[in-house]
Amino acid sequence: MTQYLLKGAQLPSGERADILVKDGVIAEGSAKDAQIIDADGLVALPGLVDLHTHLREPGREDAETVETGSRAAALGGYTAVCAMANTSPVADTAGVVEQVYRLGREAGLVDVQPVGAVTVGLAGERLAELGAMATSAAQVRIFSDDGHCVADPRLMRRALEYVKAFDGVIAQHAEEPRLTEGAQMHEGEVATRLGLTGWPAVAEEAIIARDVLLAEHVGSRLHVCHVSTAGSVEVLRQAKARGVRVTAEVTPHHLLLTDERATSYDPVFKVNPPLRTQADVEALRQALREGVIDVVATDHAPHAVEDKECEWAYARPGMLGLETALSIAVDVLGPDWDLIAERMSRTPARIAGLDGHGHDIKTGAPANLTLVDPAARRVVDPSDSASRSRNTPYAGMTLPARVVATFLRGEATVLDGKAVR
Amino acid sequence: MKHLLSATDLDASTATLVLDTAAEMATLAGREVKKLPTLRGRTVVNLFYEDSTRTRISFEAAAKRLSADVINFSAKGSSVSKGESLKDTALTLQAMGADAVVIRHPASGAPHRLSTWVAGSVVNAGDGTHEHPTQALLDAYTMRSRLGRLAGLSVAIVGDVLHSRVARSNVHLLATLGAKVTLVGPPTLIPPDLRTEVSYDLDAVLPDADVVMMLRVQRERMAASYFPSAREYARRYGLDGPRMRRLPDHAIVMHPGPMNRGMEIAPEVADSARSTIVEQVANGVSVRMAVLYLLLGGKS
Ligand SMILES: [Zn+2]
């Protein structure tokens, strides 16, 4: 196994250190056989962990595969991603989650941790075999019908209660479906002007408010996916102040882009939940800094060209995120590396129960880390993406910071900014 | 002006130029030979993804009176109905050398998308619940010819504004041309953020209105709880004879058609002297001639 010595890297704490990567861990001792990487001016972060990734396999391998998505993740500085369950077939059985888990292992570029569906076929009617998925080789801990809301309050209550047996967590896609029938974008002035059916903020906020009360009632953990509104932030703030065991994520695109983007009618900006207003963006940024929102998660959602090069209403919602998330976090949070490590590595690893990830870079810790050039600037070019899809909303934008190298259990997955395979 | 996708594409001088040009075109209708040679050799494609014989015929007549070659591409019986994407259709039209594409589409923004894929001009003939700019132009033309001006007119737009592309285009164009617009209807059907006056009380608006524009209200909206019943809707927001008599003597009543007689408009009103419904149809051809002329006439 190749040894690496990362010389003069800056740690999230601000200290500078030489980091010896040996036998899968951060080591001490002789570095005489190590390949030396000049890390002067680079920042070493614990490998990033994404709680919300759509890898599309099985079912839509034309849009993404576990391997291509894993490569995009490694290039984005990730060492673990949680693969959402809305594949075809749906990841609602031990068989499917084990298949995804195995494909991730075979690709070997990041740890692919499958998310299990809450309900059979994501239909929102009856519980999937959550326990079987939890005890499978994939050891599923996060369950989500993402793409759909678990709208039935009784079913949601039962799911929250049931997963306590194996310390699971329900990750809710908060969208009251009766309030978003036919919805195309954020309900507001821009939607009115564009004649696109609105997705009201209250459809998200009402579900989060209900779910924090349910989680409080049954004493369970709740995770809220892709929080997008200022009102949701206030609901979460109050719930956390009361001690409810709720965590929440925000996507890079909700931290950066607004509903004004829809004015082009280019569906590359269509996403669910939709891009909101500048006031929402400001509230989300503040909540992320304060910790009311715990995590940045990508909601990386690759789509084939024909699903985006069409009329807005017919396009599928979702955008790429893995290769740009860190840059956007730097753009939004500034070069506060400890905060970035907290929001993009330590906390998501803890929520997902990924014991091998999210560790500080110190002797004995698993060598899951990424080296970032904070001074770099890059122009986003969709054709450069390692993803099989091209639906990045950031095309042509100049973003700060660049991933130079990523290590998964001591093996380089990215070197010199390129995937090793 | 390259395309006409939205009424917001028109500033006051351009909009006035369209209306003045339409007035010239209208004089043609009285002549024996109703054709101008202006667009000879140019190709105008009518690309209709929704059935709208009225609008298609209006554009077709306009293009033919300017001597353009017209190709009708309707969703029925063409590759469009076989699931060909809008982009592939656009590339086909491009290869056919379309100088202008007139598009009617159920999806808001489809004309914008099309305009990024074809070299020719794109005219929005109604897209989803977004806009229908030539309807607004013909409405403005009709108001101007009946009332002599647009600036300062009080226009009440009554009904399902939320789902109306006609209302959106009218709000923008009338604001550009200096008219004062009041949207009237149940709060469920009036979006709060169109930056214009709103009233939920039709009777209060009528005495000061120069123009009342009644929008078609689809009965399906009841199923989605926008209002309880056709009867209640007609009672609160329908324009019947007694209400019409509350209008000032000079006021006119408009409707973009097709009408639900007895729902938003009573037959007595639709057939009254105040009604402009028939002349709106005739004016539509003149206005569309003006639009095609101004988009294409300067070129080639
Ligand atoms: Zn989701």
From TrEMBL, chain A:
Residues binding substrate, per UniProt: H54, L55, R56, N86, N272, H303, P317, G318
Q: Which GO terms describe its molecular function?
A: dihydroorotase activity
Pathway recorded for this protein: Pyrimidine metabolism; UMP biosynthesis via de novo pathway; (S)-dihydroorotate from bicarbonate: step 3/3
Binding annotation for Zn(2+) 1: H52, H54, D146, D299
For this protein, the record's Pfam families field holds: DHOase
Reaction it catalyzes: (S)-dihydroorotate + H2O = N-carbamoyl-L-aspartate + H(+)
Domain Dihydroorotase catalytic per the UniProt entry, residue ranges: 43-230
What EC number(s) has UniProt assigned to this enzyme? 3.5.2.3
Which InterPro entries does the record associate with it?
DHOase (IPR004722), DHOase/Allantoinase_Hydrolase (IPR050138), DHOase_cat (IPR024403), Dihydroorotase_CS (IPR002195), Metal-dep_hydrolase_composite (IPR011059), Metal_Hydrolase (IPR032466)
Q: What does the note under cofactor report? A: Binds 2 Zn(2+) ions per subunit.
Describe the family membership recorded for this protein in Swiss-Prot or TrEMBL. Answer: Belongs to the metallo-dependent hydrolases superfamily. DHOase family. Class I DHOase subfamily.
Q: What does this protein do?
A: Catalyzes the reversible cyclization of carbamoyl aspartate to dihydroorotate.
What's the protein name?
Dihydroorotase
Look up and give the organism this protein is from.
Phytohabitans maris
TrEMBL record, chain B:
User: Recorded E.C. number(s)?
Assistant: 2.1.3.2
Please give the InterPro entries that the UniProt record associates with this protein: Asp/Orn_carbamoyltranf_P-bd (IPR006132), Asp/Orn_carbamoylTrfase (IPR006130), Asp/Orn_carbamoylTrfase_sf (IPR036901), Asp_carbamoyltransf (IPR002082), Asp_carbamoyltransf_Asp/Orn-bd (IPR006131)
Q: Which UniProt keywords apply?
A: Pyrimidine biosynthesis, Transferase
- GO MF annotation terms: aspartate carbamoyltransferase activity
Q: Which reactions is this enzyme annotated as catalysing?
A: carbamoyl phosphate + L-aspartate = N-carbamoyl-L-aspartate + phosphate + H(+)
| Binding positions for L-aspartate per the UniProt entry | K82, R165, R216
Q: Which residues form the signal peptide?
A: none
Chloroplast among keywords: no
- Residues at which carbamoyl phosphate binds: R54, T55, R104, H132, Q135, G257, P258
Query: Residue ranges of the Aspartate/ornithine carbamoyltransferase carbamoyl-P binding domain?
Result: 2-144
Enzyme class (EC, first level): transferase
Query: Where is each Aspartate/ornithine carbamoyltransferase Asp/Orn-binding domain found?
Result: 152-295
Which Pfam families does the UniProt entry name for this protein? OTCace, OTCace_N
Known PANTHER family for this protein?
A: ASPARTATE CARBAMOYLTRANSFERASE, ORNITHINE CARBAMOYLTRANSFERASE, MITOCHONDRIAL
Q: How does it assemble?
A: Heterododecamer (2C3:3R2) of six catalytic PyrB chains organized as two trimers (C3), and six regulatory PyrI chains organized as three dimers (R2).
Q: Which family does it belong to?
A: Belongs to the aspartate/ornithine carbamoyltransferase superfamily. ATCase family.
State what this protein does. Answer: Catalyzes the condensation of carbamoyl phosphate and aspartate to form carbamoyl aspartate and inorganic phosphate, the committed step in the de novo pyrimidine nucleotide biosynthesis pathway.
Designated name of the protein: Aspartate carbamoyltransferase
State the taxonomy lineage: Bacteria, Bacillati, Actinomycetota, Actinomycetes, Micromonosporales
